[in-house]
Amino acid sequence: MDDRVILKKISYFILLAAVLCSCSPNKVKYHIGVSQCSEDIWRDWQNAEMRMEANFHENISLAFATAHDNSQLQSQQIDSLVASGIDLLIVAPNQLSSVSPAIDHAYDSGVPVIVFERKTDSQKFTAFVSADNYEMGRQMGEYIAVRMGGKGQIMEILGLKGSSPADERHRGFRDAIRHFPNIEVTATLQGDWTEGTAYNVVKEYLSQHDRHAFDVVFGHNDRTAIGARKAFEELHQPLLPSFCGIDGLPGENGGICQVRDSLLTASYIYPTRGDLLLQVALDILEGRPYEKEVMLTSALVTRENAKVLLLESDEVMRRSQQLDLLQDKASSYLQRINVQRIVMLLGCVVIVLLLVAIGLFYLYHRNKVNMQRERVLNNLWNLRVNTDNEDGPEKTEDPEKTENTEDHKASDASAGHSESSAGSNLPNDPIACSGPSDTSDSCAAGAESSVAETAAPSPFIIRFREVVERRMCNSELSVEDIAAEMNLSRVQLYRKVKNLSGASPVELLRTARLNRGYQLLLTTDKTVSEVAYAVGFSAPAYFTKCFKDEFGMVPGDVRR
Ligand code: FRU
Asked: Is 374 exposed, middle or buried (0-12, 13-18, 19+ CB in 10 A)?
């Protein structure tokens, strides 16, 4: 087969394997970055919802970053998410203004932005998803005021300064309380959404104020309210105020349970809705219509409805656990499929490597054989003679042994034995010769050697060539016959030829026969069989085989 055909076939196979390898059934299409301002139970809940939702869409990958309430860190994280090439950014800005430049930059660089739950101070976002923080503060204010019977003292613990929910909850709360002139917000303490800070600021306040008769403590979230409660509890007062917060999370440590267990008097559900966030994200990414401002509904949690809400949330959790299980099963199934795919891919890679290795080996081998053949031919016909040392260095090999082998080989052409042959040069010395039955032992009559000689060949080689050319058509011709005609023993002939040409007499004889055959095919109308006989092959089929080995094509190809 032609080298180029082999190379072509190998490259087709590699291409096919590469296409197969690149055909991933569940290719991720959308990389979504989620920038969370904090890490806490509320965010955990929301992140879990996003992950769960992402599982339903095989084409989504999520990258989470949490800034631990640090606006500067959050800005950096947003920058790196954008630099990583996300397709959409979901962000809860820690504070209103300090994170805005990073969000604006993301938006300006063409990344759609969903701001959720906390606002930025710019309009550069694609969608905003949140519950109404002002309304939550207002309704909580009304609930507390009514519960207090329209009179009494309140402690308010604010959320993180500069974050929009803190500001809005505060304004809503105050707007509600304003309608109750006998209610006084005696203390307004600065919190930062964390339980620890609330505990610290309340403890400090209480230690500085001897007389405190608070009826209600309103923390801007449940964790703040619980931190305040812990500080109050440390005073060992017989009468504790009521504690109210916002978030109303389901689950063991969530606000609903805390209301049920009377740790909190009320909470307000601040919906996490990570699932909805991803749905909006997909609507944006896939070009479906979406609302620019999505307002989430929420509800007050009191002792009256806490149990019902818990039942409902338990049911939701049970379902989501079932979904988790299903999800686990599905993903372990997918994993198995992936392992199978990897094994298949590896198999493909191994096959490709093997093919490449075989191809390379084949080419290398062919090249080597060709070079060897060329050398043999050149040695035979174009040899530069070292007249000083025509016999060449004495070989250490056992000439007797080699000669015996040669003896057998000499009549290979007539016996039809197979062996590797030499010579790939285009032959150029056609010789008119009689067929196999021609026992005249002279087939070089009228033949002319047209091999270009670059230097005067050795007289020995000239003689050897002359004998070979003249007698090659005799299929019975043996090395011994040639040696005898040259007045040499078989061993002497072998040594001389081998030393001068690097090839054995038999090899040179067969190469000469095949070259002559090539020439005859080119320049005469003889049939292949006639040519085979004419150059000393007793079996045309064997001639065809040797010819193919020699020239990489069958004799008929020369004609075509
Ligand atoms: C969670 C949280 C909630 C609070 C909200 C305000 O990080 O602190 O507890 O309601 O953020 O943005």
From this structure: middle
